[in-house]
């Protein structure tokens, strides 16, 4: 009977290729899970037949096909949900990357036109058109303060688009909260030395902590400096101002789960940072408090 059922399934599959469609985008682990689900239902069928042996052969076939359809349906629903989530994430990334490209293009275009603008100002001054020259200078300064220029000109040297996306997101957070920030990158960064996802997780933890702490300080400021050292090490320093109540932070305790100067249950970020960094032999990090500023320093060996 089982042999005949499998022959029937194979014929159906050749005609409509249901399983081929379902498994086309499935990773190996999901195929294995589906196989175990099918085996589970088949064991249920065998058990039911042993308990109720009076059922006919036709009923056994119907039960088998029903369980098979349930297994396939559950897997198909899961795969459709997973694909939908992935498509939404892809759309969000595309929108973010478009914003990055526009900002970089704006800043590069402004730099290209800057010489012409300076020439125009000189011409106005030489012809005693001082008021017009001042108005033009004011317009240039106003443009420099916009997100399109100020936020992106500091991250042009980061070649990784996902990392640029992270910095764009963090810059928007800082501007929304009114935090004064400065980003300095001495050389183009094309190699981060670790998995890009882990790099994003590490930097987002450090920058988010800096934003949260700085927002509580009297004059919120954040400084981010990325330096490629001569010894093939990448040095990333993230420094933020602190509120007076945060000046006595226990630098060892903040690395423990649920330990934070910001309150109970809010210290998971740095403990996760520790777990990620411990997976690599080329990462070192340190924390310090200097002149009422919290400083996180990250070293990544690129050699």
UniProtKB/TrEMBL annotation:
Coiled coil: none
Domain Sensor histidine kinase NatK-like C-terminal: 195-300
TM region(s), chain numbering: 32-55, 61-81
Source domain of life: Bacteria
KW Transmembrane helix (keyword) present: yes
Keywords: Membrane, Transmembrane, Transmembrane helix
GO molecular function: identical protein binding
Keyword Transmembrane helix among record annotations: yes
Pfam families: HATPase_c_5
Protein name (record): Signal transduction protein
